[in-house]
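FAQ: What does a multi-protein file look like?

Like this. Sequence, then tokens, then the next protein.
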Amino acid sequence: MIGRYTRRAGGGVPPLLFFVAVASLFVGLHGQAPPAAPSSGAVATLDFESFKTEVEPIFLKKRPGHAPCYSCHILENRAFRLQMLSAGSTTWTEEQSRQNFKSALDQVEPGEALASRLLTHPLAPEAGGDAFHSGGRQFTSQNDTDWLVIADWVRNAGRTPASSPIVRIYVTDSASDTIDVIDASTNQVVQVIHGIVLPHGIAFSPEGSQVYVSNESESVLDIVDRKTGEILNKVPLSARPNNIAITKDGKRVLVGIRSQPGMVDVIDTVSQKRTNTIPVDGSVHNVYVTPDGKYAVSGSIENRSASVIDLATEKMIWEVKFDRPVRPIAFETGADGSTKRLFVQLSGFNGFAVVDFSKRAEVARIKLPEQPGGYGAVEGRTGTPSHGIGVAPDGKSLWVNSTLANAVFKYSLPDLKLVGHTKLPEVHAAGRAPTGVVPEWITFTPDSKFVYISDSGSRSVSVIDTMTLKEVATVPVGEVPKRLNTLVLR
């Protein structure tokens, strides 16, 4: 058993601490534990339903090279005790699950995964676990999917869906076969999805059970189980993909195809099959769904255009032509919920174009400040001086990356006045002048308090406080991180 106990003023041993000491001595002498002391406060902070549906099944699982946890923990002398299943049953009854839950609480520090014996005892020592577990090293890494499920349950103690949504930032490592998942409450990587070589765009089903990833190496859309990280299906695409988007109702994933003459594949999320390929003007770098959910917009580098698709008919209905290749796009929502303006980044321009959606035309072009500057040339990125743009969820600010400045700039909305900038970290190589981190993509927490920037040149993600414009964390991730997206679980 573990727990946090404090010495009371005036000396003396608290009764609970005395119980723990006796229990430890008893285990040392006899290899078994007396009945557990009741948990203090954990019942009120850890969720039973999550335990029953997500955590409890792990204890019945046969892991390669190991006996199931259930095999040993049904014995009465175990500190963590599981109830014996009824004859012929493969699941516990509600009452049995509540007894399992009560026993698990004695092995948990709510909110603190690595202070919880339920997680550290079966974890390999080299991964931060206890020196010895009589059930063996059930988890060899803190990236083990089952370990992460239990860790999430512990870390989310006390959160209620209505007041504290669980926020995850997904990062595709474009030069690897990994996707990093950052817990926005701790700014730590809590899961790594493996097995998708050259992952590009990423999106989620509305309830968050599935993750959709465009796979450049195989020209497929991978469908991934969010909890386990396992690839459930591979949907063949018409050609090599780039970025993706999902419709507001979650019924269709739109995949930009990175080859001429230009098309957007439509994947039905129920049948998990490609149902249409929509012709657009030029090979697609990025594709988006507008804030009102009525349209999709694709941007083309080769054809220097932005194509607008009517999602009701799945046909391109109009386009805007530019004098430069089209890069990332962000959207401003009108008071009535319609799409008001597009903010379009362009190759060779350190700034963005402004498109009036109702006029179907560019109405302004805004250049970022000259200072800070001095970056981008050594990194070979002067042709893409500004990449990564986003409107905060509250609609009050526009954020724009600059490789030349090695910074992200904040503009107020709707007036598009410059508020300020945040300098991003530098890369320091031996014997060379510092270089920039080459920022690529932007996403936000749903409350608009933090913005996340993928630093592709430093294998990291910068976390910035949107009010103070201060970087509050730098999260190490995989090789050449690019696309970011935010998943909110309620």
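And here is the next protein:
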Amino acid sequence: MNKTMIGHEKLRLLILQVFLKNGFPKEVAEIAALNLVKADLRGIDSHGAARLPGYIRLAKAGRINIQAEPKTTRDTFSTAVLDADGGLGLWTAKEAMKIAIEKAEKYGSGWVAVNNSSHFGIAAAHAEMAIEKNMIGLAMTNASPLVAPAGATQAYLGTNPVCVAMPAGKYPPFILDMATAAAANGKLEIAERNGKPIPHGWAQTAEGKHTDEANTLKKGGTLLPLGSHADGSYHKGYGLGALVDIMSGVLSGANFGIWVPPFVSFLDVNRKDVGKGIGHFLGAWRIDAFEDAPVFKNLMEQWIEGVKSMNKKEGIDEILIPGEPEYRMEQMRRKEGIPLNEKVYEELMKMQ
């Protein structure tokens, strides 16, 4: 599939223009554009500009409130619940993270559960906000029900990502940003656009058989939990996905399980709500509540150097820490540009 190279600043302005054209306030549009470009810069192409049409589609359908006014409905010294008022998750999750950081600055840690929100993009964009404050950040969200619990043939959970971000001294930040499914749905969308099969273990058919068809979800198939099958310990991926759903949905008062409003267009949205919108859970805790920040960073450097000193398997040049591949990709793409899928680029230009 052909690619169109585009500079990150030009891409940001193009995305910003689309959000503004469709009535989003400037502040919301600017944050949303930065989030999507951040995903493309980090090589998470499934959650960058390719996601833009989906957000606009949901806004036009009235499933995203472009004039949302989030409000805190519960509040303690270190915790809060934020009703996002149906707003764009790319923005509302950042608003929640600001609250978590403010609480952490005063009390050592801050935790915010969010309901009545929507798809929030890459989790790293929210969790990493804590790093510049010498804090550790956490971000998680539930999502479209596309993942079957271990042993099931029907979808109940989303890909339900979780991210933890922390400073690492002279090294790039440690950023663990992962779906709790074997693969994110966006990876299947990329494979489908490129006309390629998906790896064994990512998904199953409606009958519960492994498949390499990228469009299997549109035929009633499901994604598999991290681990892919019983011998691969997929009960662990299932457990992690369930935890994210409970923390993001059940605890916050949002929808959960099969009731989560889907982002994808091929799932039925006419389900009775058990909560409000999509849910997130965000947190921040001060490093110096446990250890002096300079000491912690020095120890993180030692930890990383220890990992990198391990004997390598044949064919492996270097052992990387979580977040390092994305960091390196971002540095390269900032210089060389972002390779957009031709179909994604054409759709973006049509939206101008």
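Q: Is there any per-entry metadata?
A: Some entries carry free-text notes. For the entry above: The CA atoms of residues 59 and 65 lie 7 Å apart.
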